[in-house]
Amino acid sequence: MAIDPLTIIMLAVLAVLVFFMFRNSRKRQAQARELQSKVAVGAEVMTNFGLYGTILEMDEEENQVLLETTPGTVLKVHRQTVTRVVTESPFATTDEPVDHSTDGEPEYGERIDEPAADTTASTPDATADKPEKKGDE
């Protein structure tokens, strides 16, 4: 039985795909273990639906976490909804002054708070250039 080159190439591609599937699986498992080691009482976390809060209590048997989102507001969520441990506030503001460009043009996405100059007063009246029509001419 002769093995043609096409069969060898197909088996090699299949082996590479299987290798990458196992590799990605191991990476995801390592990331999940790392996340679970960081999740502890007192940690500020984000859920998969974008809710930020501080962990007050964890129930290992029921896989539930009590999150305090604002002072006095406590939510009970499933432990697997906690997807990220927040190390710093995503809404932190910087005290650095905004650098405006020297040419007067705003940068992309920058808002200008100054009102636009009124250009209607500087343009000549449009009716002044038209000759007047006389009745029967």
Automatic annotation (TrEMBL):
It holds the Pfam family YajC. Residues 86-137 are annotated as: Disordered. It comes from the Bacteria. The keyword Transmembrane helix applies. It is found in: Cell membrane. Keywords: Cell membrane, Membrane, Protein transport, Translocation, Transmembrane, Transmembrane helix, Transport. Residues 97-114, 127-137 have a biased composition (Basic and acidic residues). Its main location: membrane. It is a single-pass membrane protein. The chain crosses the membrane at residues 6-23. Coiled coil: none annotated. Residues 117-126 have a biased composition (Low complexity). The keyword Protein transport applies. Belongs to the YajC family. This is Preprotein translocase subunit YajC.
